[in-house]
């Protein structure tokens, strides 16, 4: 039996570590860092965002988590995220997966899922 994507990402602790490192990468990425830097001054909001991301990634990858946050459209409405910003975020995600030695098929699975969300995020 094939392991779920959730298991291949390391389960709950693996997903949490990935989310932490993806956010760190976004904070250093000149294309999108301005969108994330304000979170550094709002630690409670950052913790909430990370918790939602962990639940979102967990639920979306076959884990037991339940995502109760806003829809992707609602969460990104009014942000007018460009295609370049979206790709910069995707690059951070993929680089983080590779840095965590996530296998190639799992990286491809995450890429496919992420690209399926693009219409719900870009230019909302």
How would you sum up this structure, described in words?
The chain has 124 residues and is mainly α. The chain has a single domain (5-121), classed as Globins (Globin-like, Orthogonal Bundle). Helices cover 68% and strands 0% of the residues. The chain has 7 helices and no strands. Helix 2 (11-28) crosses helix 4, helix 2 packs across helix 6 (83-99) and helix 6 runs antiparallel to helix 7. The N and C termini lie far apart (39 Å).
Structural class: mainly alpha
Q: Indicate the mean pLDDT.
A: 95
- Helical residues, percent: 55-70%
What summary fits the major beta sheet?
Answer: none
Radius of gyration computed on alpha carbons = 14 Å
CATH architectural category: Orthogonal Bundle
Would you tell me which CATH topology applies? Answer: Globin-like
Organism: Alloyangia pacifica
Keywords: Heme, Iron, Metal-binding, Transport
GO molecular function, one term: oxygen binding
InterPro entries: Globin-like_sf, Globin/Proto, Globin_bac-like_CS, Hemoglobin_trunc
